[in-house]
Design brief:
Elements lengths: L4 E3 L9 E5 L6 H13 L2 E6 L12 E2 L2 E2 L7 E6 L22 E6 L8 H14 L4 E10 L9 E5 L2 H8 L3 E3 L8 H11 L3 E10 L8 H15 L6 H21 L11 H12 L6 H16 L4 H10 L3 H16 L5
Parallel strand pairs: 2-7, 2-8, 8-11, 9-10
Antiparallel strand pairs: 1-3, 3-6, 4-5, 6-7, 9-11
């Protein structure tokens, strides 16, 4: 059987916590993990072969020359906690004497949907090979909030005991709903394999789901640092969050025709601002690919239309695809002999 994971550096870790992230709404998850890697100076030690997990959908060009198909990078990093050198075994999340090394997995893109479950299990196999028993993922939580508010952090855990523990660190518990993509699926796979895990979700405004949201990543890392009892220098991320808020302030002021920015933003204005902001942003390639696959699946099986509509609504792009979506139903109405 093919070995999907290549270990490039042999390491020994103590009580490692496993963290994983993929791109998603607001790039919250990927930015959180990427910043964590940089802030801790985590070291790469393995990579995952994604060749069988993705279908190339674009050409990369360098100096005017088209390159061969490029598959997304997916890498594993480790960080040795200085405290583990003199500490005993790990305790519960957030325990004062809890000292854990970290494994951080980060991928440039999410795999095609039919490969997700297989992909998640392969990643968990590596975590288990280092005897990791605890997992963290990250995600965005679109809410009717404004971009200059301090975002709340929500949490979904694999059992109620973990929910109670993480609540102590000012995270709100997500009682119902779903976490789409690998940032959610990995948590479910971890539970299936007997692992404990938590997804931390940072609130983002409904009208900015296609824009990087460092403020949500900052809120998540503030909670994570308290839960794991580790120190993370967040100054650069705070500056990014401040600059982004200022830029959105300027855009909103422009789109609202100079109205007082402190006035509450109504639903009609949110829709108008979302449309305007989308002109300045673009969907991640992995999302575009997923939408195209759902269109193809719906052509063959109209019952998939609900799933397609849900995906379009999630990214606030239904209007952009409305004609194509409605055409799916027109095709089904044609007599078979036409």
């Amino acid at each position: 059987m093919k070995n999907f994971i290549k270990i490039t550096k042999k390491i020994k870790l103590k009580n490692p916590i496993f963290i994983a992230a993929w791109p998603g709404m607001g790039n919250v998850a990927i930015k959180t993990a990427d910043y964590l890697i940089e802030a801790l100076s985590a070291v790469e030690f393995a990579d995952l072969d994604t060749g069988d997990l993705f279908y190339p959908d674009q050409a990369w060009i360098s100096e005017g020359v088209v390159e061969i198909p490029r598959f997304p990078e997916a890498k594993f990093y480790y960080w040795k906690n200085p405290a583990t050198k003199s500490s005993g075994s790990a305790k519960d999340f957030g325990g004062k004497t809890q000292d854990n090394d970290l494994i951080i997995f980060i991928s440039e893109a999410q795999p095609v949907s039919e490969k997700g479950y297989f992909y998640a299990n392969k990643i968990m196999e590596l975590a288990e090979s280092f005897k990791s028993q605890k997992l963290f993922t990250f995600a965005a939580m679109p809410m009717p909030v404004e971009h200059n508010q301090v975002p709340q952090v929500w949490a979904a855990a694999t059992d109620k005991a973990l929910s109670l523990q993480v609540r102590k660190f000012n995270a709100k518990i997500m009682d119902t709903g779903q976490i789409s993509g690998l940032n959610g699926l990995l948590l479910a796979v971890a539970k299936e394999r007997g692992q404990a895990g938590i997804c931390l979700l940072g609130e983002i405004p409904l009208y900015t789901i296609q824009i990087d949201n460092p403020r949500a990543s900052l809120a998540i890392l503030e909670v994570l640092s308290r839960v794991l009892n580790i120190s993370i220098n967040l100054e650069d991320l705070k500056n990014q969050a401040r600059l982004q808020a200022e830029e959105i302030d300027r855009l909103i002021d422009y789109f609202r025709g100079g109205l007082e920015p402190k006035e509450p933003i109504g639903e009609d204005e949110i829709e108008r601002i979302k449309k305007s902001l989308q002109a300045f942003t673009k969907l991640p390639n992995s999302v575009k690919l997923q939408i195209e696959k759902l269109f193809e699946a719906t052509k063959k099986d109209i019952s998939k239309a609900q799933e397609l509509k849900k995906e379009l609504d999630k990214w606030s792009i239904y209007k952009e695809y409305e004609d194509r979506f409605l055409d799916l139903f027109k095709d089904k109405e044609k007599p078979e002999n036409q």
